[in-house]
Write a structure and sequence with these properties.
The chain has 13 helices and 12 strands. It is an alpha/beta fold. The protein has 2 domains: 168 residues, Rossmann fold; 131 residues, Response regulator (Rossmann fold). Strands 2-1-3-4-5-11 form a 6-stranded parallel sheet. α2 crosses α10, α5 crosses α6 and α7 crosses α8. The longest helix is centred in the middle third of the chain and has 17 residues. It is globular. The two termini are 38 Å apart.
């Protein structure tokens, strides 16, 4: 079965050798020698892989680009691009600002990339920019957050409903299914809205002895979260659980309740070094962390595939209608629940070292044949 699977993969991967808007680099045809009938599975030939052109450029675009979450995603995106023989660049905007992120997207679009992998801060502002890319023949795949009404050809994410649900179950269990909970929110960021709305709804539907006492608008600002949670906690001394949809506001929330001397289980999505240290010190309950490596890997594979659809016959109206037949409305990259017991596996410095990069700057540098 493993030999058959390998042969099928070799065939399917070879069918993906036509570039989007360009010419694919020629790759040597894999020489597959049929093993003897009694040969062990370990001797089965492996698929030789697929390759793009060394002139291809795949752009990675995010908001608040200094947030630690994005870095392993790009590392996997970059390494997968290198495996495919194409180039990648890390970009976006350091600000939490939709207008500035659209400007950074348009700047990348002006470079005529082969494809763009973007996490849109809000859905609506990216409908037109993604359409501009589609009109130029440049496929766009979204990740982590989406623009579902746009012309994007794929969306890679962890299930945000599942994240909010798992956070509700974890906090409710930790506080003995009674008390008071709150959230930090970033209104308008679709994936964060889904997480916090799901958390609230699940608590209200399943834990009658837990009351929801409010939300703090943090917009990924640590100080705003600290000030808001401090005020909310002082009004609700029975507060014993807080969920934040990302790590930055959660740090502010955890610092606020610690300063007040309150025993509160704080949980978030994503991790960074500060959150991991707080988890290990007992100042933070835990985190739900999307599989960042899978998010980067599958993002590159979906985007790359969208540039190589011509040799496969799809049973779909899309190709005949002039649409890209590659269409992946949602690919779940999975998640982990990070606690004090496994927190050591998520430190960025250890990850950078394990990946063989000199430092963070090296990991985020452009990669591929034009840059290596």
């Amino acid at each position: 079965m493993k030999r058959l699977t390998a042969l099928i993969l070799a065939l399917l991967l070879t069918l993906s050798l036509v570039a989007c808007g360009g010419t694919a680099a020629e790759a040597p045809a894999p020489e597959v020698e049929a093993p003897a009938a009694d040969a062990p599975a370990a001797d089965a030939p492996a698929a030789k892989g697929i390759y793009g052109s060394e002139d291809e450029l795949y752009a990675f675009n995010v908001f608040v680009s200094g947030v630690e979450y994005w870095w392993p995603v790009y590392a996997a995106f970059k390494d997968t691009g290198r495996m495919l023989g194409v180039n990648t660049i890390y970009g976006g905007t350091p600000e939490y600002d939709a207008t500035l992120q659209v400007e950074s997207f348009d700047a990348q679009l002006a470079q005529n990339p082969t494809g763009i992998y973007v996490s849109p801060i809000n859905a609506e502002p990216f409908v037109d920019p993604i359409q501009r890319a589609a009109d130029a023949g440049i496929p766009v795949v979204t990740f982590a957050s989406d623009s579902p009404d746009s012309a994007r050809v794929g969306y890679v994410t962890s299930d945000n409903v599942n994240e909010g649900t798992q956070a509700a179950i974890a906090i409710a269990t930790a506080i003995g299914e009674k008390g008071a909970v709150a959230t930090c929110v970033n209104p308008g960021q679709t994936n964060h809205d889904i997480r916090t709305n799901t958390f609230k709804a699940y608590i209200e539907e399943n834990y009658p002895d837990i009351k929801f006492v409010g939300e703090v608008v943090a917009n990924q600002d640590m100080d705003a979260a600290n000030v808001g949670i401090t005020a909310l906690a002082q009004k609700n001394p029975d507060l014993n659980g807080i969920f934040c949809p990302e790590a930055t506001s959660a740090q502010g929330a955890a610092a606020a309740v610690k300063a007040l001397g309150m025993e509160v289980k704080v949980m978030c999505c994503d991790v960074n070094t500060a959150v991991l240290d707080m988890i290990k010190a007992g100042d933070f309950y835990g985190s739900i962390n999307p599989n960042q490596g899978a998010q980067g890997y599958w993002g590159m594979m979906v985007l790359f595939s969208a540039c190589y659809p011509e040799l496969f016959d799809f049973m779909s109206f899309r190709e005949g209608a002039g649409l890209n037949p590659i269409f992946v409305p949602k690919l779940d990259n999975g998640l982990d629940i990070v606690t004090a017991e496994n927190a050591d596996s998520y430190y960025m410095d250890k990850f950078i070292e394990a990946k063989g990069y000199a430092d963070l700057e090296d990991m985020l540098a452009p990669g591929g044949p034009q840059y290596d």
